[in-house]
Structure formats: C-alpha cells, structure tokens
Amino acid sequence: MRVFVTGATGFIGSAIVRELHTAGHQVLGLARSDKAAELLARAGVEVHRGELSDLDSLTAAARACDGVIHTAFIHDFSQYLANAEIDRKAVEAMAGALEGSNKPIVVTSGTAGHPPGRTSTEKDAPRDPAGPRAASEVAVLKTAGRGVRASVVRLPPSVHGQGDHGFVPALIDIARRTGIAAFVGDGANHWPAVHRLDAARLFRLALEKAAPGSTFHGVAEEGIPMRAIAETIGQGLGLPVRGISADEASAHFDWMARFVQLDILTSSAITQAGLGWSPREAGLLTDMRESGYFS
C-alpha cells in the first residue's frame, strides 16, 4: 500500500514509518517545514508539503494514496481548543476524500476521556463526545457508513521509548527543578502506558486489517500507579519521593497538575484478540530505568 502519514517525523509517527517500510508499504509523509521534508527524505519517505490547516493539501494526499494514518496534532496547549478544531476539520477532510473507496484511515485518539473508577474498554464511547479530542474520533467513525474503512487507535498518556518528550520527561524535569519526585495524595491513581514500537505495530495492523468503525486501545499496561512512577523518578535522579496535597498540585506541577491526578485504567483485550496484537517491548518503569530517561 501507499500510505499517507501525518506526523511522520514525530515520536510515534517516525516509528510507524519504519514499521510500514518493514512490512513492504510505501509512505507519503506530510512535511510542514524544510527540516521535516529533509528528515523524511533521509528516511526514504516521499514528501508531501502542507500542514493540518491546509485542507486542500490533505485531501489531495489522501486521494493519492491507498490509506491514511493520522498521528499529527499541534501540541500548543495554550491554543488547545483551536488546535483540536483544526484536527477535527483535518480528519473530516481526509476521511471525506476516501468516501466510497473502502480505503482505510486510522486516526489517533486518547484514553484519558473515559469514565474514571473502572477499567475502560474499546466499547466505551468518550465521556464527552463533543469534547475537543473526542470530536475527531466521532467524526472519523461516522464515515465508516459511507464507504470508508475508518478506525481509531486510542493511546494512553504515556507512550514511551527512546526519544520520548511527553509527560514522563516533563515529570522528570519538574522533579529536577523542585528537588522532589512528587505524587498527589496517596499516589494510587493510575496511568496506562505503551512502548512506541508496540504502538507503531498496532497502527500498521489497524491499517491492514481493521473493520470499518473499529476502535482500538494501544495499551500494554492497563494502569501503573503514579506513586510507582514517582518512585522510579526519585531513584533515577537520587531525589526524595513524597506525596503532596491536591491543593499543592497546581503550584508544584504547573500545567501538569490535572494530568498527574488522572486515574485511568484501560484494557486492550479486545484489540489484542481482534488484531492479533501482542505488546512485547519493555514496560514503562523498566524503560525509564534502562533507556536514558535520566541521562
């Protein structure tokens, strides 16, 4: 297949590109800058210049390919709502370009928008279907009834591995700055996690095999206690580990305060059974200790 990949130079997207090449697929990668275009060309990827707000460009690329994997998102949290709307429109444009073709499009979503207090499954709808990120998930799945083999891969807060620049490195930076590795309350709340290479294999399998309207969970570990993550950070940096109150969280964690208090338990049993996907890379805590997170 010739596959259009957005976010092809990103932490997850670049792993997907390698996974697709290994499986014999060709890749057309979206490049917003000269630097991104150079990185893609160096990786043997055909370059398509454009950006998420350029709907005509996205539509043309989707029509020119046999399938789409969408991992790009504008990670500027100061403009989160606006960027989520750009994402929704981009998803609608690419999926619309595939209507009636039965070609696949795989869109990235998250597990954080599901009800707390129980383990969520692939059958759970987003808690707020009109919420910023959920809107893209809802939009693409609607096209499954219009001749598009649309599916969604929901990813956990921690997608880890070499080159990680997400939430766990942010927590490590906060610990370095404040001198403690902290958790909120008793630290019994959970984050699910997956290694980026396991996630890349899941995206490839969804592209190749997903039935229209499918939702998958890219989760290797259902829920790691935040206290265990803080303890691993403390060990890695040689810092004390302690709990802080919810009232102290905003001052200590800044923009991360809401995320460190999330309690997310997520199953991927349906995904593993349906696609034959079996996570095989290191778990989050092992990866933190062995993959240079503290160097």
Description of the structure:
- This protein is of the alpha/beta class.
- Helices cover 40% and strands 21% of the residues.
- The protein has helices spanning 13-22, 34-42, 55-63, 80-97, 134-142, 167-178, 196-209, 226-237, 246-253, 257-260, 269-275, 284-290; strands spanning 2-6, 26-31, 46-49, 67-70, 104-110, 119-120, 149-155, 158-160, 181-184, 190-195, 214-217, 221-225, 241-244, 265-266.
- The strands form four sheets. It has a seven-stranded parallel β-sheet, sandwiched between helices. A three-stranded mixed β-sheet has the order 8-10-12.
- Strand 4 (67-70), helix 4 and strand 5 form a beta-alpha-beta unit.
- The longest helix has 18 residues, at 80-97.
Keywords:
295 residues, alpha/beta, 12 helices
Secondary-structure blueprint:
Layout: E1 2-6, H1 13-22, E2 26-31, H2 34-42, E3 46-49, H3 55-63, E4 67-70, H4 80-97, E5 104-110, E6 119-120, H5 134-142, E7 149-155, E8 158-160, H6 167-178, E9 181-184, E10 190-195, H7 196-209, E11 214-217, E12 221-225, H8 226-237, E13 241-244, H9 246-253, H10 257-260, E14 265-266, H11 269-275, H12 284-290
Parallel strand pairs: 1-2, 1-4, 2-3, 4-5, 5-7, 6-14, 7-11, 8-10, 9-13
Antiparallel strand pairs: 10-12
